[in-house]
Write a structure and sequence with these properties.
- The structure holds two protein chains of two kinds.
- Chain A is mainly α.
- Chain A has a domain of 58 residues.
- Chain A contains five helices and no strands.
- Chain B is mostly helical.
- Chain B contains twelve helices and no strands.
- In chain B, helix 2 packs antiparallel against helix 10 and helix 11 packs antiparallel against helix 12.
- The longest helix of chain B is centred in the middle third of the chain and has 26 residues.
- The radius of gyration of chain B is 18 Å and the shape is globular.
- The relative contact order of chain B is 0.17.
- The chains are: A mainly alpha, B mainly alpha.
- Chain B: It is a multi-pass membrane protein.
- Chain B: Belongs to the AzlC family.
- Chain B: It is found in: Cell membrane.
- Chain B: This is AzlC family ABC transporter permease.
């Protein structure tokens, strides 16, 4: 049970701070010219941030012990192959979830 | 460049496969909020104000342990520092939008909307849509489905069996988006370095492992590209 005043204060402060982080560059972009090196680095943001979220989520979190612990990594591998082959988001998600459920059922 | 309505709808349409992952994500956040003793409106208010699942879950967890307000808010903000990177990366594509519109786009910026839009803008046909409105369509669709998930979660989320592991749809969504975006060797090296560092730095507090991985990846990609250009 959480005190509701405390809860709303967290919602307000965390919400406001998160908004300011999100809005930061979008706000100043037409007034500031970024250096060439920064512009070149921007291209690598998606290819870096997403794997940094994916790898720990797949290999370290939510894993069970024993052979069942292999379910998430194997399901993720299947999803990577599906993504390379089809470049289709839906097929990737469904093949990963199906593999996960199948492995959980048989392991 | 096509019209704004067409662009908005393209963004919304392209996000449909991702929405499958958003509903369970919202559902989990809503269910955890309700589990912490919040009313439906409390859980929704939390979701709408913050609109970033990972930080919401961390904040809730800390609040359960009666952490101080400063610790809860700072932890949530550190987890959300990645939005600085998204903001910097997407900003050049949104600058034709007037300021109030840009504030709205900033408010609904999410991992998923960012990933989807930047993938489209980097494609050869990326310039065929009005970019701010394409992003608006994608981000709105993500935001609405996340909210729907949160409503469900706050009301009935506790009856979904944990064995389904619906939360796994979230990393799968990111795999679906990032794999096609890795088109050349510098991008591949960036992804590899980022994943490796994030793996080994996972024990760091405040999700700093994510930031360490991301920054390493960005620098690796940049340096690899410079090296290739010199050869």
């Amino acid at each position: 049970m959480t005190d509701s005043e405390y809860y709303w204060l967290v919602a307000l402060l965390l919400g406001l701070g998160t908004f300011l982080i999100r809005f930061s560059f979008i706000l100043v972009v037409d007034r500031v010219t970024f250096p060439e090196a920064v512009v070149r680095m921007l291209r690598f943001i998606p290819a870096s941030v997403l794997p940094a979220i994916i790898v720990p989520a797949v290999l370290l979190h939510g894993t069970d012990g024993g052979p069942v612990g292999l379910a998430r990594p194997v399901a993720a591998l299947v999803a990577v192959l599906a993504a390379r082959k089809t470049r289709n988001i839906l097929v990737t998600i469904l093949s990963g979830m199906a593999t996960l459920w199948l492995l959980r059922a048989i392991l | 460049m096509n019209g704004i309505k067409y662009s908005f709808l393209s963004g919304a349409r392209d996000s449909i496969p991702i929405l499958l992952g958003m509903v369970p994500f919202g559902l989990i956040c809503g269910a955890v909020s309700a589990g912490a003793g919040m009313s439906l409106w409390g859980a929704l208010g939390f979701t709408w104000a913050i609109n970033a699942g990972a930080s919401q879950l961390a904040a809730l967890q800390l609040m359960e342990h009666h952490a101080s307000l400063a610790v809860v808010v700072l932890t949530g903000l550190i987890i959300n520092l990645r939005f600085f990177m998204y903001s910097a990366s997407i900003a050049p594509h949104l600058k034709t939008m007037p300021l109030p519109g840009r504030a709205l786009l900033g408010f609904i910026l999410s991992d998923q909307a960012y990933a989807l839009a930047i993938a489209r803008f980097h494609r050869e046909d990326g310039g065929e849509v009005n970019k701010p409105f394409y992003f608006f369509g994608a981000a709105m669709a993500v935001w609405v489905s996340y909210s729907i998930g949160a409503v469900f979660g706050a009301s009935v989320g506790t009856i979904i069996p944990p064995a389904w592991d619906l939360g796994f749809a979230v990393p799968l969504t990111f795999i679906a988006v990032v794999v096609p975006a890795i088109k050349d060797r510098p991008a591949g090296l960036a992804a590899l370095a980022a994943g490796l560092v994030a793996y080994f730095a996972d024990g760091l507090p405040y999700n700093l492992g994510l930031m360490a991985g991301a920054v390493t990846g960005i620098l690796t990609g940049y340096l690899a590209e410079r090296r290739l250009a010199r050869d």
